[in-house]
Amino acid sequence: MAMCWAVLKMAEHPEVQAKVQQELDALVEGEAPTQEELPRLDYLGAVLLETGRLWPAASALLRCSIDTDLKVGGYKVPAGASIVVPIQAIHRSTEAWGDDAREFRPDRWKRTSQSLSGLPGVVSKTKTVETELAKSSQAESAVEHDEGEEAGRKLVDLTYAASLPLVGDEKSRPIFTFGGGPRSCVGRLFSLTEQKIMLATLLKRYRVELVPGQGPFSQSIRGFVARPTPSPEIILVKR
């Protein structure tokens, strides 16, 4: 579904598509990017990060503290209670992301895409999500032995620290496209690499356009997955 949204956004924003193709023409020699070329595709990476921000694979997550009562952000969470993390709502929050939170704007990532190298979650110019996850994994056992408010505070700290991208010199923003903390998605690197290869290979050969008369598009959510509505029809124009 991530690729569906990415291709739709390319068709809806030809100026963004043109910038991606300029980058591909300059940096990719063959019909598909090599392993060495992939990390250089900064703007393509920014497009995928922005697509994942607005339309994450899951619009929400469920979490549960099975054995322990927790106090998180001043709220008591009894053992066995399920907590819904509204990922898409957080990603579109103007309080967190500014007045343009609902706009598709890959340039918001552009200045940090080299540091990100296709991986969301940079928390500083020297720390990546991988280093934070390693720390989180080491600290997880300590959390499991704590109870109540202290355990809740540590869980929030670990999850939040592993979910903050640094956007240039601006303040950090919460991003949970692949979850966060020690239980974030283990397939995030594979997913982003796969998306980069697929979209780069497509846009290297073709320009994507919408069949005339379509739109505007909204979204429908089924099983936590956001789908474009109505289903878009795409034309591939050989470059």
UniProtKB/TrEMBL annotation:
Domain of life, source organism: Eukaryota
Gene3D superfamilies referenced in this protein's UniProt entry, alphabetically: Cytochrome P450
Keyword Endoplasmic reticulum set for record: no
Keyword S-adenosyl-L-methionine assigned: no
Positions bound to heme: C185
Pfam families for this protein: p450
GO molecular function, one term: heme binding
Keywords: Heme, Iron, Metal-binding, Monooxygenase, Oxidoreductase
InterPro entries xref list: Cyt_P450, Cyt_P450_CS, Cyt_P450_E_grp-I, Cyt_P450_sf, Cytochrome_P450_monoxygenase
Cofactor: heme
Matching SUPFAM superfamilies: Cytochrome P450
Family: Belongs to the cytochrome P450 family.
UniProt name for this protein: Cytochrome P450 family 3 subfamily A
